[in-house]
Amino acid sequence: MNLKANNIRSQYTESGQQEIVLSTEKCDISELKQIIAKGKILAVEIKQYRHKRSLDANACLWSILQQIAEVIHSTKDEVYLQMLELYGVFTHIIVKPHVVEKVKQEWRTVRELGEVTVNGQTGIQLMCFFGSSTYDSKEFSVLLDGVISEAKSLGIDVMTEEEKNLLLQEWGK
Fold first, then answer.
1. Averaged in consecutive runs of 10 residues, what is the pLDDT profile of the chain (173 residues)?
2. Residues in CB range of 159: below 8 A, 6 or more apart
3. CB atoms < 10 A from the CB of 68, how many?
4. DSSP one-letter string for 50-86
5. CA 95 to chain centre
6. What pTM does this model have?
7. Alpha-carbon separation of residue 121 from 17, 59, 95, 99, 124 (angstroms)
8. Domain ranges of the chain
């Protein structure tokens, strides 16, 4: 069950156990109560709410990637990886030389930056790019802006600024 909460407070039972009270939209918690009644424990994760991008925004991205691929005689997947390297979200990691290939298999795209020595041990520094499915709306907006810019530089007419803004506004709805 996923809920959005707009208020949180803490209170304590007579035995001193902390209770967290969230204000949410109305929901049926009878199934959750049955699980607890059977002696089971619920897994609960509370984190800041983020708007998810719409399927339209994602479809638009892949449509533009396909158009770019056709112009440059590539595949949309190859263009996607290139765009991640230009406009995507990444992290730097240092790994032992013998696991470089294994790490590359776990990330959407990886750029090897070279050998480094840390505390007397040699490692390979990698720039690892996250796939866009993990992006929040701001990160996705940067990627989409970059892809649109690349398309326009190739003479591909993709969308007006107003159309793009309307598409990005749809994320939270």
1. 86 93 87 91 83 74 96 97 96 96 92 94 96 89 94 88 71 47
2. 60, 148, 167
3. 23
4. -PPPPHHHHHHHHHHHHHHHHHHTS-HHHHHHHHHHH
5. 23
6. 0.64
7. 47, 45, 10, 14, 10
8. 1-49, 55-172
